[in-house]
Amino acid sequence: MTLEGSYLQQTGGEREGVLPWSMPSPGLVLKVHMLRTVEERHGCMVPYIIRRLLWMVPTLLAMALLTFTIMHLTPGSPLDPVADNANPLSPEAQRNMAKQYGLDKPV
Fold it and tell me: pTM above the 0.70 mark?
């Protein structure tokens, strides 16, 4: 006796829909989604796009905050020489550049 046979015997020999242990085929699911009208598809897509656009704002703010924090937690400045002869500018030129780019001001 097969599983299908036992199921048909349990239900009185009538087969309604799909067997409980089987999944619908991907082709069947694809056909069902293709039968939806354009309005139904737009009805699903518009809230999705709005939701994604609304989530963009806090995501960009979080990224900006994280970048700002990491940049200000790192030691040194762009004008500090790391290795010997890495910065050929004189100390006076370094102070002038720091003033020009606002690197001498506190956060």
Answer: no
